[in-house]
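Exercise 7b. C-alpha cells:
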C-alpha cells in the first residue's frame, strides 16, 4: 500500500515546481551565506555580553569603593 502511494506521488509530481541542480545550489548557497551572517552576529553579541558583564562588575566595584569613602566621610563629619 505504501509503495503504491509513493509511486503515485512520484508520478503525479508537478514538473513546474522542480528546480535544476544549479538553481538548487544557488539557493543553498544563499541560505548558507545567511546562516554564516547570523552566526557572525551571534558571536558579536556574545562578545558584547562578556564585555558588558565585565564593565558592570567594574562599575559595581567603583560604587562599593565610593560607598565606603562616603561612609568614612560621614564618620569624620559626624553625619548619620
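Sequence design result:
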Amino acid at each position: 500500500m505504501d509503495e503504491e502511494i509513493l509511486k503515485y506521488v512520484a508520478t503525479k509530481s508537478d514538473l513546474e515546481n522542480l528546480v535544476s541542480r544549479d538553481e538548487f545550489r544557488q539557493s543553498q548557497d544563499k541560505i548558507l551565506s545567511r546562516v554564516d551572517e547570523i552566526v557572525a552576529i551571534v558571536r558579536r553579541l556574545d562578545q558584547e555580553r562578556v564585555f558588558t558583564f565585565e564593565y558592570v562588575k567594574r562599575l559595581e566595584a567603583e560604587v562599593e569603593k565610593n560607598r565606603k569613602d562616603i561612609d568614612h566621610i560621614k564618620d569624620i563629619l559626624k553625619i548619620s
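Instructor comment: The helical segments are 2-12, 21-77. The chain has a mean pLDDT of 89.
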